[in-house]
């Protein structure tokens, strides 16, 4: 039976993000037996969730799955944990990304990593709001990695939502989660251990 780890990248990012590459390098060196997938997530909510769901369901058909994600990827990883009952590690996750979108990203946009141009309207913000989790069932399935120095998201929102989960809170840092590579071994242990 195969075991797959899925990394979900953030908003306006890509599978080439630093953390995705750091985890891939660690797995290649230390756990070549594990399957590793980093799907390309569209910038709009419904297509993004469809891409996440397809990836998760295809991996589940082959064996067991663990998921991790940063920022918006952490938001989607939380949704995966809730819907599919899978373990997830969330790194500086977005808790209410719909509010951030409504105030900073309405209108014509361009993903700086992929060059994809698109339009974000109020309808898409409402779609994103519908995916938000206000409470977590089975918090033991989730591990929050959070740095207080996140300059984009209020870390206190994450602490409130993920209370009862395994929580690692570090002072300083940034939205990118400085020093992520330190946690690769522990993340793999959390996601790949039999539940």
UniProtKB/TrEMBL annotation:
- Name assigned to this protein: Esterase
Q: What species does this protein belong to?
A: Pseudaeromonas paramecii
Where are the bilayer-spanning segments? none
Q: Which domain of life is it from?
A: Bacteria
**InterPro entries found in the cross-reference section:** AB_hydrolase_fold (IPR029058), UPF0227/Esterase_YqiA (IPR008886)
Q: Which Pfam families match?
A: UPF0227
């Amino acid at each position: 039976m195969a075991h797959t780890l899925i990394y979900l990248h953030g908003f306006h990012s890509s599978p080439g993000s630093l953390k995705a590459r750091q985890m891939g390098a660690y797995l290649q060196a230390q756990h070549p037996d594990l399957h590793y997938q980093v799907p390309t997530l569209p910038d709009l909510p419904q297509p993004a969730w469809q891409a996440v769901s397809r990836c998760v369901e295809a991996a589940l058909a082959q064996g067991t799955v663990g998921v991790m994600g940063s920022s918006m990827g952490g938001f989607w990883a939380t949704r995966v944990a809730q819907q599919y009952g899978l373990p997830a590690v969330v790194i500086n996750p977005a808790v209410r990304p719909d509010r951030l979108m409504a105030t900073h990203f309405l209108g014509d946009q361009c993903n700086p990593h992929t060059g994809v141009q698109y339009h974000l309207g109020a309808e898409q913000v409402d779609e994103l709001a519908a995916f938000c989790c206000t409470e977590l069932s089975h918090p033991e399935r989730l591990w929050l990695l959070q740095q207080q120095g996140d300059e984009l998201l209020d870390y206190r929102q994450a602490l409130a939502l993920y209370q009862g989960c395994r929580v690692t809170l570090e002072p300083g840092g940034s939205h990118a989660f400085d020093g992520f590579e330190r946690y690769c071994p522990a993340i793999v242990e959390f996601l790949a251990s039999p539940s």
